[in-house]
């Protein structure tokens, strides 16, 4: 694999259909833009249709806008139905949208906002669209995680929704760890099919709107450090784009910036925390996610250690 993978390395995308969540701004916009400019038909799946349409007008290529509010299972089901009706096949689903460090809030379905948006919303959307990807050789589900999956991170099964106490930083870490666990478990379930793969990526530190909910005590240092440490969204989107398009990518891999600390730089294969590879925790999280969302996947449970998880 090349050490300086750039937008120019994206293969021709003509004939591919890509759905990108949170694509009206930041990393999602840049991901959608580069895919469309390489020939893909791209759907901007966004909460605010007006902002989505303005974003679509800035992209050269075949672009559509789909309303999607990841904080509402009703909206997710409606969006999935629209996407299924419009697209008999989907080549690429990019689970990009996310929230970071908000004060404690809940989704329409009562989930803690970060877990509900970053993980459970994308879990449900993926499950509802997966049968549009499964018949397509080379199709991919790419889920955007974060180096934050290592920060005070664990899956707090005893208080998954942070009802007893709340740390916005630890809750964010949990949601990003869940993104990786979901990817690894999904890949095991997809592997016997041999057509679709699940891959994860993270953008390092990128200068986007995602930091708008940074706790007050951190705002001044973040404001000073942002220009020094972060990279622009065009660079931050490259790990996602490599995971989505590089022919050398394999299922279950994780891509991030190649610079020191994975903060910035060209995208390369990176590692994730030991906790993210805990298969029993992955499977437990999967079962709970199915129960909470009411969405089951058209792929069987993985066979681990000689027995089938259920």
Q: Structural class of the helix and strand makeup?
A: alpha/beta
Number of helices: 9
Order of helices and strands: EHEHEHEHEHEHHHEEHEE
Q: Which class in CATH terms? A: Alpha Beta
- Mean residue pLDDT: 91
The major beta sheet can be summarized as: 8 strands, mixed
What portion of the residues fall into strands of 2 or more residues? Answer: 5-15%
Give start-end ranges of low-pLDDT stretches. 219-228, 305-310
Radius of gyration (Å): 18 Å
In the sheet with the most strands, the strands line up as: 3-2-1-4-5-6-7-8
Description of the structure:
It comes from Auraticoccus monumenti. Belongs to the short-chain dehydrogenases/reductases (SDR) family. It is a single chain. With 310 residues, the chain is of the alpha/beta class. It has a single domain, classed as 3-Layer(aba) Sandwich (Rossmann fold). 39% of the residues lie in helices and 14% in strands. Helix 4 packs across helix 9. It is globular, with a radius of gyration of 18 Å. It starts with 16 loop residues before the first strand and ends with a strand. The relative contact order is 0.15. The C terminus is likely disordered.
């Amino acid at each position: 694999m090349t050490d300086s993978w750039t937008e120019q390395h994206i293969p021709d995308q003509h004939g591919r259909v890509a759905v990108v969540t949170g694509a009206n701004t930041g990393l999602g916009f840049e991901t959608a833009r580069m895919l469309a400019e390489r020939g893909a038909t791209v759907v901007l799946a966004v909460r605010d249709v007006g902002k989505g349409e303005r974003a679509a007008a800035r992209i050269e290529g075949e672009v559509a806008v789909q309303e999607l509010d990841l904080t509402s299972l009703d909206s997710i089901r409606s969006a999935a139905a629209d996407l299924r009706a419009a697209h008999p096949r989907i080549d690429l689903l990019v689970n990009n949208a996310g929230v970071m460090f908000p004060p404690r809030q809940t989704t329409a379905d009562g989930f803690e906002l970060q877990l509900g948006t970053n993980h459970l919303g994308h879990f449900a959307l993926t499950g509802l669209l997966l049968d549009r990807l499964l018949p397509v050789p080379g199709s991919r589900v790419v889920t955007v995680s974060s180096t934050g999956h290592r920060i005070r991170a664990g899956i707090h099964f005893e208080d998954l929704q942070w009802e007893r106490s709340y740390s916005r930083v630890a809750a964010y870490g949990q949601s990003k760890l869940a993104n990786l666990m979901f990817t690894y478990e999904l890949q095991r379930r997809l592997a016997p099919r041999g057509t679709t793969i699940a891959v994860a990526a993270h953008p390092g530190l990128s200068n986007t709107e995602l930091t708008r909910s940074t706790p007050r005590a951190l705002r001044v240092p973040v404001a000073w450090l942002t220009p020094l440490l972060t990279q622009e969204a065009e660079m931050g989107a490259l790990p996602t784009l490599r995971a989505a398009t590089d022919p050398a990518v394999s299922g279950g891999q994780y891509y991030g910036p190649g610079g020191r600390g994975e903060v910035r730089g060209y995208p390369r294969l990176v590692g994730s925390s030991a906790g993210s590879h805990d298969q029993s925790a992955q499977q437990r999280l999967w079962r709970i996610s199915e129960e909470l969302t009411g969405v089951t996947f058209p792929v069987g449970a993985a066979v681990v250690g000689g027995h089938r998880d259920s």
